[in-house]
Fold:
Amino acid sequence: MKLYYFTTSEYKSKNANFINTDCMSKEFSSLLDESYSFFYNYEKETVIKEKKQTIFSLKASKGKLGLSLFYLKSFLKVFSKLQNEDIIFTRSKQIILLAAIFFKGTSCIEMHGGIVSLFDKFLFFFLSKFKKIKFVVISNAIRVELLKFVNEEKVLLARDAHNFEILNNTICLNQPLRVGYFGSLTKQKGLGIIKKIIRHNKQLHFYVYSKDQDVLEADHSNLIEYKYIEHSQVQKKIMNVDVLLLTVDYQGSKDLISRYTSPIKLYEYLSTGKPIICSNSKVLKEDVNSELVYFFENDLETFTNQVNSILEVEPCPVKIKLRKELASKRTWKERAKTILSFLND
Structure:
């Protein structure tokens, strides 16, 4: 059996989508005899052959049309080689549609968003008619919408994951308390409340690591570090702070990320066992509760209340253990195993 993984990611980019697909590609290859992964880039085509995996980085033009042509080119590249026992795994609607029509083996689409448009509704109604098509979703919010079209046995809930080592680290709180934020600084990611938190909590020291530079006011005396770091450096930096901040700020009906997200950062944070102050988001509460994280209402009052709670009860051995236990179940390797078992069933 061979697995063909058609990603929707730009090869070697710095965004979370590439981290996700690169990790899954590696874990799939470690569990299979042979796998093929497809990425796009805007410069030149390269083929990287490893022991059990071949990576195709195909040149694409920018824009929706360019990506559509990339998906078609990727599929045509292997179409003649596909065997009925092989598996196609993708996040692309174009690829899954081609697979449904032209491929007799098992195909699976990984869904990171809901069924919103009329095209989506038609597509998933159409796909539901094929016994060979399966579905992986990253949150229960997506699963609930999908079950309106698809039988439950064809759907697997497999949340995003992480590749951090679960360390046997000692946790202590410094004074002043060091608060760390890692990730994008956009409205949807809570930029507004992050700015307020930094401005109105001079008693705390903040360490912010983001590719989005120059969106925070760098002259705050309590903003100790604000810069971009490679993902490979994130765990080391996390270990240098006391409290981790994860914000999501719903931007209305057009904000499809906040409604369906399964953030990689949550599981990376949990792997350290450190206290997390987290936006009180319904989709985030699917997998964690107040035993694991400290929820706040994206306002200064509840943020301050949760900081005080952390100072009162942390470090808490029971909470640290629970965080690391969940993180150990949410690794990319465990996710790949679960998905392959589902696809082979």
About this structure: Residues 91 and 200 are 41 Å apart (CA to CA). The two ends are 14 Å apart (CA to CA). The chain has two domains: 2-161+332-344, 178-329.
